[in-house]
Amino acid sequence: MAFLYSKGRFLGFKRGQRNQHEHTALIQLENVSSKEETNYYLGKRIAYLYRAPTAKNGSKFRCIWGRVTRPHGNSGVVRAKFRHNLPPRAMGSAVRVMMYPSNI
After folding, report:
1. Averaged over 83-103, what is the pLDDT?
2. Positive or negative CA dihedral for 43, 24, 71, 11?
């Protein structure tokens, strides 16, 4: 059975000692622990799903789409850019890393 996505966790935003850059999110990928293992995920799409108080199109679930752009450090964390910046309340929550587009 092939899985459509793997799990990840939104850690926070890219930052320096004093400045935070909200346009780039840091994502910890599940079962990925080295920089070399992140190469497979580069370019893959990410979905952050959340529940809103009011229904749109018959559903209270909404999604913010993004894409893995590059590795971050040496421990399996990647940088991602989303169409709309992720809200701060999303820190620590789960994201779905889709297994497409394929670059094999």
Report:
1. 96
2. negative
**Mean per-residue pLDDT over the chain, rounded:** 96
What percent of the chain has a predicted confidence (pLDDT) above 90? Answer: 94
- Cis? peptide before 101, omega within 30° of 0: yes
Global confidence as pTM: 0.94
CA 4 to chain centre: 15
The residue whose two tokens read 């989303």 is 82
DSSP the chain: ---SEEEEEEEEEEE-SS-EEEEEEEEEETT--STGGGGGGTT-EEEEEEEEEEEETTEEEEEEEEEEEEEETTTTEEEEEESSPPPGGGTT-EEEEE--S---
